[in-house]
Amino acid sequence: MAKIIDGKAISAQIKEELKEKVAAMKADGIEVTLAVIQVGKDAASSVYVGNKKKACAYIGIRSLAYELEEDTSQEELLALIEDLNGRNDVNGILVQLPLPGHIDEDKVVRAISPRKDVDGFHPQSVGALCIGQKGFVSCTPAGIIQLLKRSGIGIEGKECVVIGRSNIVGKPMALLLLRENGTVTVAHSRTKDLKEVTKRADILIVAVGKPKMITRDYIKEGAVVIDVGIHRNEGNKLCGDVDYEDVLPVCSAITPVPGGVGPMTIAMLMNNCVESAGC
Known about the structure:
Structural class: alpha/beta
Oligomer: single chain
CATH architecture of the largest domain: 3-Layer(aba) Sandwich
Distance between the termini: 44 Å
Helix content: 25-40%
Shape: globular
Largest sheet: 6 strands, parallel
Low-confidence stretches: none
CATH topology of the largest domain: Rossmann fold
CATH class of the largest domain: Alpha Beta
Radius of gyration: 19 Å
Mean pLDDT: 96
Number of strands: 11
């Protein structure tokens, strides 16, 4: 029977550890502060921002909310980021993506000081990860490493396959698995014989963005399967990139959707915020 990797329980454990750390920092006169910027009223973004604020409140992180109008200019947004970069009482800066079409996301990401880049999206943060130097790591891949480690799943020496090559998940995920001494293959939409590639995987991480694409035909017997996808099916129920019911009998461990990778992303954002106070 496959082990169900409980992201809710593991993220709760991390939040408790952070809560203790933040309380100790406060006792030493250090307050952790996260500035969250949202442009426009995108419904999904509002939910994510609300969850981040709740997590901050629970852990004891001070959060500053900047809710800007949809028609806010790029210059106004960049000026706000510049101001926050210069403030000693702000440790982390997060700009909720996606941004309205008239704003260049790349310019906005690059404008955030790498010392305050708690999302881990700045090119300097990504470059530091590439060459094994200290820096903030993208929250979802960092969360997956914690899911594996805290579930007693070793990475060293394992065949690891990542499906997806996005800058936010796929690429940093591959680099983190390499850092843990995994043997890593990155597969994507142009990969030939995808099933042959994925069936080599001891650890398969799926971030393709297609509901229930990965069935048991893609899975090696006894593999660990991590599902990064999140979608609504025809019945408006949440599902992932993996056909969970189909894959469950053949894998040794699997993350559910919801309740797997999702909760870990916010937990690791909070972890980055706490680390930012020590930069």
